[in-house]
Amino acid sequence: MVLGLGSGTTASFAVLRIGELLLSGELNDVRGIPTSEATARLARENGIPLVGLDDAHPDLTIDGADEISPELDLIKGRGGALLREKIVAAAGEGLVVIVDGSKMVDTLGEGPLPVEVDRFGYGATLKALASLGCEPGLRLLQSEPHPFVTDGGNYTADCLFPSIPDPAALETEIRSIPGALECGLFVGLTRAVVVAREGGVETLEAGSP
Length: 209
Hints:
By secondary structure, this protein is an alpha/beta fold. It has helices at 9-24, 37-45, 82-91, 122-130, 167-175, and strands spanning 2-5, 31-34, 60-63, 67-68, 74-75, 95-100, 113-117, 135-138, 155-160, 180-183, 185-186, 190-197, 200-205. The protein is globular.
């Protein structure tokens, strides 16, 4: 099968485990579509054959999340790879999210919503995002006061909303802004969420009561 390979700390554990299972022979004939350059490097280092979206589509994508609502809608992208993560997740047959219990929230928006923006005219884009009721801030590198640049060569705006009660509506509004390439709201893409808690592991499936 073809697996979409997510980005970030949690997703990296899945990549490492897939590599181990391929090496042991417990898995075979598995190829990966990475969602970031960092994930691609990790996959190659661990023996996972890679393929591009032009040649295959993922049967399943495994990734982490920053926030998850009771409806299994997500906020992703605080690690800086939301555009590629969303392209891969939307191209596949379903998204399985692995998180710890701290990522489960009653309403999305407890932290910033990342929006990947074009570098050209980004100031105007941030003003347009602010008109939606948020406080947008350009993400900077931790090591120096320069903008963080994604693998696609874009900037990221971290947008603080009081809350996001209607993720689908907000996603549509953000997408209507010229210069806003994609936002970190993943609505209707999740097939299941695997949640690690102190008492054990719980699996939540889309459509379940």
